[in-house]
Amino acid sequence: MTADLTPTPFLPEHLTHAHVLDALRHIEQNGLRLAPGTVYDLVFESRRYPPRAVAQLAYRLASQQPDIRWPLASGTPTNALLERLDFTIATKRPTLANSPQDGNVAEQEQLPVNLYPGRPAEKPAPGKPAPADAPSIAAEPTASYPTTPAPQPYSRAQALAELFISEEQLDAALAALHRRRNLLLQGPPGTGKTFLAQRLAWLELGIIDESRIERVQFHPSYSYEDFVQGFRPDATGTFRLQDGVLVDVCRRAAAVPDQPFFLLIDELNRGHVARIFGELLLLLEADKRGPAHAVRLPYSPAEAPRFFVPENLYVIGTLNTADRSLTPLDYALRRRFAFVALAPEFGPKLQAFLLDKGLPTILVEQLVTRLNALNETIADDPELGAEFRIGHSYFCQPPAGAEADVWFQLIVEQEIGPLLEEYWQEDHAKAEAELKRLLAK
Q: Given a cut of 90, is residue 154 above it in pLDDT?
């Protein structure tokens, strides 16, 4: 028999971090001008590059085939591969087309140019009113929000009275937060994830002090530029480099190193987490906190102070395990968090709470029995599972007296019923049968 001497083809998955670095060096050393990407950029050492063009060049150099075509499409396929190789992919920001500064974040920051392409409005002469059709500058409406109340003490006893989890579960969550400084609360809808996140922050602070808590909710349009740093328009329409929520809360925490600060991220896995977090994937680790591990942010000029996550900042996120539209978190992010699973709590603590609110005993017994039975059915369904169970938060604001039966019926019909229809969208009879069991007289 003769050995097969056919060379193994070089595939996209054979690319390494070093191959892409070689391509980036080749671009800079040879002064290559690549056609800009349309939606995304690869950000490296304060410069921005079109991801697919970089991947194709790396592919050609590594395979030693100068005419080979990059087989993956632009967007998610190419971006996902580059992100797996630890490169940052960010959504594009406004650029100066055909400018020699195009792609250089530091140089563009120094340009005193308004990126708005329209002509500036003429100012009326002093004492002369502006024309009726003169455009006005858009501005946020002034809102008369109530002032933040003075901080109030918050104790362990208060937390245990408000939460439906056991003291052992509370201690386990606090231990995870102390150990990793980053905690993710995951569970089915209605299990009190956001409620617990806020109480954990208050409990660690010892007071209800909103000045040391920052909240944000991720969503599909949320980006690195919103969370960390990016170019955004100010009130005059000029694009300026502005810090995001993360940099702001880190700066506040670093100024008071002896006091804890909290960043609460709701619905964390609704956003493109790896793209939103950027450098935070490294700096989040408990042993990578502080100035010794500071890094230069991609948008920042060379002389700007380096960014770090202070040791007194704690991050608590929530994840809804029942949302089928969400993609799993990547392993690089998972290993930087401790995970605490929350489950529906239709036990003695909820029953005592409902009875104390004046609900009839028979209604409380029916509610607990029927919801536990429904959750068993959901957990046993091979198409669903335990992560799709119904949480107790739906029933945490009961009315008193004679309205209780109507209150329970409306929650089942208007909130739980539509959820069951979504769960069994291809078996409407099943959803209808479970709904009837909940409402049986």
A: yes
Count CA atoms closer than 13 A to 153's CA, side-chain side.
Answer: 3
Mean pLDDT of the region 205-231: 91
Please report how many Cα atoms fall inside a 13 Å half-sphere around the Cα of residue 310, on the Cβ side.
20
**DSSP characters over 245-265:** HHHHHHHHHHHSTTS-EEEEE
Range with lowest mean pLDDT among 28-37, 226-235, 319-328: 319-328
> According to the model, what pLDDT value does residue 328 have?
59
Chain-centre distance for alpha carbon 131: 45
Q: Where are the alpha helices (DSSP H) in 183-300?
A: 193-205, 224-227, 245-255, 273-277, 280-283
Average pLDDT, the chain: 83
Q: What percent of the chain has pLDDT over 70?
A: 83
What the block records as the tokens of 11 is 């595939």
Q: How far is 78 from 93, CA to CA, in rounded Å?
A: 19
Burial of residue 45, with CB atoms counted within 10 A of its CB: 0-12 exposed, 13-18 middle, 19 or more buried: exposed
pTM of this structure: 0.67
Cβ-Cβ contacts under 8 Å for 166 (sequence gap 6 or more) = none
**Alpha-carbon distance 75 to 420, whole Å?**
35
Q: How far apart are CA 299 and CA 230, in angstroms?
A: 7
Residues 238, 116 contacting (CB under 8 angstroms):
yes
Tell how strand 313-320 and strand 338-341 pair up: unpaired
pLDDT digits (tens, 9 = 90+) for 119-131: 444 445 555 555 5
pLDDT digits (tens, 9 = 90+) for 44-96: 877 889 999 999 999 999 988 888 889 988 788 898 899 889 888 887 655 44
Here the tokens at position 9 are: 């083809």
Beta-carbon count within 10 A of 354 CB = 22
Per-residue DSSP letters for 353-401? HHHHTT--HHHHHHHHHHHHHHHHHHHH-TTS-GGGPPPGGGGSS---G
Taking the CA atoms of 292, 296, 297 and 301 in sequence, report the sign of the dihedral they define: positive
Q: What are phi and psi of 295, to 5 degrees?
A: -130, 160
Distance (Å, rounded) from C-alpha 211 to C-alpha 249?
A: 10
